[in-house]
Every structure is written in structure tokens, then in C-alpha cells.
Amino acid sequence: MYLKEKYNVEVAYLFIGFVPENQDIYQSLQKDGYILILKEGMKLPNGIIKGNCDAELVLQAMIEYKNFEKAVIVSGDGDFSCLIDHFYKKKKLEMLLVPNQERYSVLLKKQRKKK
Question: Fewer CB within 10 Å, N- or C-terminus of the chain?
Fold first, then answer.
């Protein structure tokens, strides 16, 4: 797993919307070492499936807070800026990885400038 090799991540959670047709993908991710937190996906009018997992990610991060030294968060969603800011202030943030450098929240751009 990339996160393990690059950042020495021991436990990697993946928060994703559940779509029954993607069962093979989920199994493959689990074989690669990810712990999946699945939330029922909702199909939007434009056909995109949304699995709004924001609360689940924040909740799991706080449940596990005492069990890790540093977190690597992979997201471009500004909804996590308060979590990222908290981890940064408490010296619990190893890295914020933004998958799409072309399009991500301005709230996270401010976070990345702090480093």
C-alpha cells in the first residue's frame, strides 16, 4: 500500500459510499490493507453517486486519537478543515494529501500554507 510505503501508515481507513456493483473493488481494497467504512451511496440527479462520509471520518479520527502518533489525511474536502486544524495544533498531523491539485477547497489551501 502506498501510504504504508511512503508515510509508514500502519492502519488506513477508507471512507466511501457503498454501491453494490463495486463489491470487487471493496474486496480488493481490503486485501490491500484498507479498513473500509462504507456508507450507503445516494444517486444524485446528475448520475453521480455520493456517499457522504464526513461525519464518519471525523468520528473515527477522534475515536482513534489516542491510538496513533500522527495522522495522514487524504482529502480535498474543506469540511475536514476543523479536524485538520485541530490535528495540526496538537502536532498529530503528519501530512495532508490532496488528490486533485487542480480542484480542492480554499479552506484546505489555507491549511497547507501553515506548514
Answer: C
